[in-house]
Fold this protein.
Amino acid sequence: MDVQAPASGDVTALLRSWRDGDPAALDLLVALVYDTLRQLAAQRLRSAGSAASTLQPTALVHEAFLRLVHGDIDWQSRAHFFAVASKTMRHVAIDHARRRGAGKRGGDVVRVDLTGAEIAAAGPAVEVLALDEALSRLEALDARQAKVVELRFFAGLSSDETAAVLDCSPATVERDWRTARAWLFRELEVRA
């Protein structure tokens, strides 16, 4: 399912207006991107399996928006917005997993089925927290590959959409995606 993103010019113009102090621009921005972000959140939560059992797409988007609105971010473009939004959704999901697992030291660990997210063709389910740690290690090695994973897995963007956000070619995204998947699979397998 490909989600059609709002036009880049509209989002960029609204972000600039909001950054410049126009409160009405935020309302227009929310109206423009909300459905897209909610669809992306629903896709991610469906592929997350049991990790999604108590986190709903609406709650994920609302929590992400609250963090985005209250953050001090110098919005530059549509690409910047979706990159920050995907990272924020990742952090919301990780925080949710930590809260769920905190009650019973490992007894209620939230697991994510990464096969649905194409991280590995037939790999096992892994803990969402282990994925977060591995993704942080990948970010230290190759920031663009980590962003590709965030945008593909957490924001649910296609290769073409990810390429547009990162301002690179779809071939570069596909190459980074293959490399990052292999690296993450190996990291998660070694640490299991």
